Amino acid sequence: MTAPEPGWPSGSLGRAPPIVGLRREHEVLTVALETGRHVVIEGPPGTGKSTLLRDIARYAGRAVVFAEGNAELTPARLIGQYDPAQVLAEGYVPAAFTDGPLLRAMRVGALLYLEEFNRVPEETLNVLITVLAEGEIAVPRLGMVRADAGFRLVAAMNPFDTIGTARVSHAIADRICRVVLDYQDDAAERQITTAVTGENGEVVNFAVTLARATREHRDVRMGSSVRGAIDMVLLLTGLARRRGEDGMARATARDAAHAALSGRIRIADGCDRSPESVLDELLGLVWPEDAPTPLPSDGRTPRDSGAPDGRGKANGLPPQAGTGQRRASASAVRRDRGGNHARRTLGRAERRPARRGCARGAAGRRPGRCGDPPGRPGPRHRPRAARRRAAARGPDLLPAGRGRAAAGPGYPPPWRGPG
To answer: What are the tens digits of pLDDT across the range 191-219?
Structure first.
């Protein structure tokens, strides 16, 4: 068995970006590992989860065992399994057992880095309960394996991804600490982009500003990370060299933005816009068509003029009090006022009027037809058994119904059964 390389497994992720900022998270994670705690790092993509752990492991001289979390990570793949050919030849001997990432980290006292923690099946996560609490695991036919004193579990997860993920059980969450990472500020992302790409100046400012603007757009559920800005700088400078352009051109910047950012943003549910149309709108704010160069950035994210608070992430305005009707969303009102598009079609919930008591409104049955006071259901809304009991009390009490006259003189008495 080969021990993992100190700091990170050889050739796993290549050269990592430098650590910029994250001082508070760096200190918390370092102390948690030093005091024997297991940690889960939460944050959207591109916030430096694996980079942070790699830096801490290298600084402390700790070995790291990497495990990719997905739906196919079974308990046997995480713990290890017997080699069938060797079992047939020698039986269930310890030499026939191949350690998985968990046992490798436990034996040498390494850090087990489990990525995409919320994609791991529940039956596989349950294997970790005893390991996290007692520091040992019982493997059938192999026996009890105890973890070295330096063993720690460091998991990473993106809580905003809803495809192929599941909620981590409380039994696991109760045994680990939690460190939350968020996007860094504008200056830090510019510094990261410059350090990775080797570029500086206007192209970096433009790429970072546009990537950050995707996180604030009203129609975007999840925007781009700093990785989008890095790719955009590389594509933009490469296209400019290939096309023989001296400086930045808006058409080239648009092509680079579509290639680098369109696959990284997620449009909000129920919105029929494409990522390219959102990027074109943001590009018009950062670099207007009549401007020779992008607008100077002051470190603030350009916001859509229609969103007064700059967020634009709400699911629409609250319903009007007492009407039961839902107001049109702010984005729909802006589209209606634009004049370039036809007024949107009202949904079923918006067309349906309020229902008060027996009255159905102008779109339904005539108000007051059932003769009941407001707040009480009419006979057409009562269960069938209730209507039978009302009919059994006599014709004088029989209410009016659809398609027949009210009970009164000359109306035949209801049938009461044999005898």
So the answer is: 999 999 999 889 999 999 999 999 999 99
What pTM does this model have?
Answer: 0.64
What are the angstrom distances between the C-alpha of 24 and each of 20, 79, 188? 12, 33, 14
**Among all chains, which residue has been given the structure tokens 């410059």?**
194
Q: To which CATH superfamily is domain 23-180 assigned?
A: P-loop containing nucleotide triphosphate hydrolases (3.40.50.300)
Question: 3-class SS at 39?
Answer: strand
Distance of alpha carbon 133 from its chain centroid, rounded?
Answer: 29
Q: Which two tokens stand for residue 342?
A: 């036809």
The answer to whether 268 touches 285, Cβ cutoff 8 Å, is no
| Single-letter amino acid, residue 272 | D
Residue 3 to residue 63: CA distance in whole angstroms:
8
Please state the domain extents for the chain: 23-180, 186-286
N-term to C-term CA, the chain: 93
Domain 186-286 has CATH 2.60.40.2250: no
User: For residues 342-364, b (16+ Cβ closer than 10 Å) or e, as one string?
Assistant: eeeeeeeeeeeeeeebbbbeeee
In eight-state DSSP terms, residue 396 is G
- Angle at alpha carbon of residue 50, lines to 54 and 148, rounded to 5°: 55
Residue 143's DSSP bridge partners are: 139
Residue pLDDT, tens place only, 164-195 = 788 889 999 999 999 999 998 999 999 999 99
Label the pairing between strands 152-157 and 111-115: parallel
> Which one-letter amino acid corresponds to residue 324?
G
Helix, strand, coil share of the chain (percent; to 5):
40, 10, 50
